[in-house]
Design brief:
The chain is mainly alpha-helical and 125 residues long. It has one domain. It is 82% helix and 0% strand. The protein has five helices and no strands. The chain is elongated and about 65 Å long.
């Protein structure tokens, strides 16, 4: 029970700052906290925080996708004579596609939570 109270206080602390303050203070959005917020979010601030977390995840996966795209391009530029599968290009292509899909998913989640924040703001007026 004490841990839940401390967790709630820490979350409330994060919600009281601006988005820039939150980004500077908490660079990561751990999955357990995000899952908890997804189940229990009701206020505009909570949905904004979720949206910010999903935007961070999107940026993270976009960066990973860009890295894999560069790896794919360099792998395709080199001749590869080994007949083993998967080739480095195949691996890079698969990871690039996966990271791009994940980034798109997080972008949709961020947009959905922005919409929920707007709706919760309207319903509380």
């Amino acid at each position: 029970m004490r841990n839940l109270a401390i967790f709630t206080i820490v979350l409330y602390w994060g919600f009281t700052g601006t988005c820039q303050d939150i980004a500077a203070v908490s660079p990561a959005c751990p999955w357990p906290e995000m899952n908890w917020m997804l189940r229990n979010a009701h206020s505009r601030e909570e949905f904004d925080m979720l949206s910010l977390c999903f935007e961070r995840k999107e940026q993270e996966f976009r960066h990973k996708a860009d890295t894999e795209k560069k790896e794919l391009e360099s792998s395709l530029a080199k001749p590869y004579l080994n007949s083993k599968y998967p080739t480095p290009a195949d691996s890079a292509r698969g990871l690039f596609q996966y990271y791009s899909l994940q980034a798109d998913k997080f972008k949709r989640q961020a947009e959905l939570n922005r919409l929920r924040a707007t709706e919760s703001n309207i319903s509380h007026k």
